């Protein structure tokens, strides 16, 4: 069988949720995301190493603010990278695509939008309601 496309996933109406073709599709997507994040991290490291000292205090402040922003972005990407690696492990052990709270299918459309999702929409909403309830 040919590789599945995004459209095939979004239009899927079969009974065999998370079959081998689905798993292969999401594995490739996650590996591609991982590669992009690693490339970004390398580019940032190179960029930070290439910078030279600037004597002007205003220029230096601007550069430091840019560095801080770039590092915050990389930190978010580092966290996403951990989620991607966890999702890849879930694919290997057969638990990918199923809610970690309920065991129910997360759903192909949700996984297309967020391939690292570990909760169904209902479970995610329930957790967010609980957080808000206890945060007040």
UniProtKB/TrEMBL annotation:
Predominant cellular place of this UniProt entry's protein: cytoplasm
Top-level taxon: Bacteria
GO MF annotation list: zinc ion binding
Keyword vocabulary terms for this entry: Cytoplasm, Metal-binding, Zinc, Zinc-finger
One GO-annotated biological process of the protein: regulation of gene expression
ZnF (dksA C4-type) intervals: 99-123
DnaK suppressor protein DksA N-terminal domain sequence ranges: 23-91
Ranges of residues in domain Zinc finger DksA/TraR C4-type: 94-129
InterPro entries: DksA_N (IPR048489), DksA_RNA_pol-bd (IPR012784), DnaK_N (IPR037187), Znf_DskA_TraR (IPR000962), Znf_DskA_TraR_CS (IPR020458)
Subcellular localization: Cytoplasm
Claim: Zinc-finger is one of the keywords in the record: yes
GO cellular component terms, semicolon-separated: cytoplasm
Record function comment: Transcription factor that acts by binding directly to the RNA polymerase (RNAP). Required for negative regulation of rRNA expression and positive regulation of several amino acid biosynthesis promoters.
Family: Belongs to the DksA family.
HAMAP family to which the protein is assigned, alphabetical: DksA
Subunit structure as annotated in this protein's UniProt entry: Interacts directly with the RNA polymerase.
Protein name: RNA polymerase-binding transcription factor DksA
Native source organism of the sequence: Pseudogulbenkiania ferrooxidans 2002
